[in-house]
Automatic annotation (TrEMBL):
<dbReference type="Pfam" id="PF21362">
    <property type="entry name" value="Sina_RING"/>
</dbReference>
<keyword id="KW-0863">Zinc-finger</keyword>
<dbReference type="InterPro" id="IPR052088">
    <property type="entry name" value="E3_ubiquitin-ligase_SINA"/>
</dbReference>
<dbReference type="InterPro" id="IPR001841">
    <property type="entry name" value="Znf_RING"/>
</dbReference>
<protein>
    <recommendedName>
        <fullName>RING-type domain-containing protein</fullName>
    </recommendedName>
</protein>
<feature type="domain" description="RING-type">
    <location>
        <begin position="32"/>
        <end position="66"/>
    </location>
</feature>
<dbReference type="GO" id="GO:0008270">
    <property type="term" value="F:zinc ion binding"/>
</dbReference>
<keyword id="KW-0862">Zinc</keyword>
<keyword id="KW-0479">Metal-binding</keyword>
<dbReference type="InterPro" id="IPR049548">
    <property type="entry name" value="Sina-like_RING"/>
</dbReference>
<dbReference type="InterPro" id="IPR013083">
    <property type="entry name" value="Znf_RING/FYVE/PHD"/>
</dbReference>
Length: 164
């Protein structure tokens, strides 16, 4: 079990890997509705729903709204998916560092990593704002984007709590 800093209660250490769970939940919002993999290369319908390119060849119409696909791609979503992958890798590295026997010496490194994670999450939130303002007309898509925004705000809250 990783050691905690003196006098400070770490949410991540005391309750297990909370932040990685939140990243996983946010990633679920970015899943293809057909294959349930994270959408890496996307195609969107007229309503803005996304599926992965592999699944596009299997269906003629959007599985959510039944509109035909017009072959457009949401480039902002690609950036979100890429940054989510970066955050996941960063969190795995942090977990390994916190489990190490020399945790006290690593705290300065992890604090700088938390700063980088905060920057990633803020970038993701800005990108989500752009995606939502551009093509999201469907209520369900707004709910999913709001859910991702909630998870990212919560991750920022946890990071600030750990840094105190």
């Amino acid at each position: 079990m990783p050691r905690k800093r003196k006098g400070k209660k770490s949410t991540i250490c005391s309750e297990g890997p909370v932040v990685p769970k939140l990243v996983t939940e946010a990633e679920k919002s970015a899943e293809c509705p057909l294959c349930l993999d994270t959408i890496k290369n996307n195609v969107q319908c007229r309503m803005g729903h996304l599926i992965c390119v592999n699944c596009r060849s299997k269906v003629a119409k959007c599985p959510i709204c039944r509109d035909p696909y017009d072959g457009t791609k949401c480039f902002a979503f690609d950036e979100v998916a890429e940054k989510l992958d970066s955050v996941k890798i960063l969190l795995k590295d942090l977990d390994k560092l916190l489990e190490a026997p020399h945790t006290d010496k690593v705290i300065k490194i992890t604090e700088s990593q938390f700063d980088r994670m905060t920057e990633f999450i803020k970038f993701l939130m800005d990108t989500l704002e752009e995606v939502q303002s551009e093509r999201v007309r469907n209520v369900w898509d707004r709910v999913q984007l709001n859910q991702m925004r909630f998870y990212m705000n919560y991750m920022l809250f946890l990071i600030k709590d750990v840094k105190k």
